[in-house]
């Protein structure tokens, strides 16, 4: 069974950090670009970050640039999202998704596989 499983979400105070993980089972991520998306209550799902299959290319939404870092360990079949200096507006369910592509192109309606998400709550 092909699936992506996110983990690492939780409750954190403003200014704090979390690291999300996205682990694949049933297939190898070596040939997939991986994206992190998020959906806040009452809002549409949006792209956060994307990484190419090799890890050599990344991109970020303007709202998270300089605070979030995406990385991958293909040997562990896992992609990470390090989130620092978290703000209340980062509160959302975070999803990872995979697209069969070498480039760092992660389109909301163009991904092949999705995880079920992990909740991140930033609050004091």
Walk me through this protein's architecture.
- This protein is mainly β and 124 residues long.
- Helix content is 0%, strand content 49%.
- It has strands at residues 3-7, 10-12, 18-25, 32-39, 46-51, 58-60, 68-73, 78-83, 92-100, 113-114, 118-122.
- The strands form two sheets. Strands 2, 4, 5, 6, 9, 10 and 11 form a seven-stranded mixed beta sheet that branches. A four-stranded antiparallel beta sheet has the order 1-3-8-7, with no helix packed on it.
- The chain is globular, with a radius of gyration of 13 Å.
- The N and C termini lie far apart (39 Å).
- The model has no long low-confidence stretch (mean pLDDT 96).
Structure at a glance:
It is built from no helices and eleven strands. The protein is mainly beta and 124 residues long.
């Amino acid at each position: 069974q092909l699936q992506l499983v996110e983990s690492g979400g939780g409750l954190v105070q403003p200014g704090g950090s979390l690291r999300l993980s996205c682990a694949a089972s049933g297939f190898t991520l070596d040939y997939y670009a991986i994206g992190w998306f998020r959906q806040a209550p009452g809002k549409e799902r949006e792209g956060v970050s994307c990484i190419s299959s090799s890890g050599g290319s990344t991109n970020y939404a303007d709202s998270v640039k300089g605070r979030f870092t995406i990385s991958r360990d293909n040997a562990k079949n896992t992609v990470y999202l390090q989130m620092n200096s978290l703000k209340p507006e980062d509160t959302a369910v975070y999803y990872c998704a995979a697209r069969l592509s070498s480039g760092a192109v992660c389109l909301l309606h163009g991904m092949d596989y999705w995880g079920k998400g992990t909740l991140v709550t930033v609050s004091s």
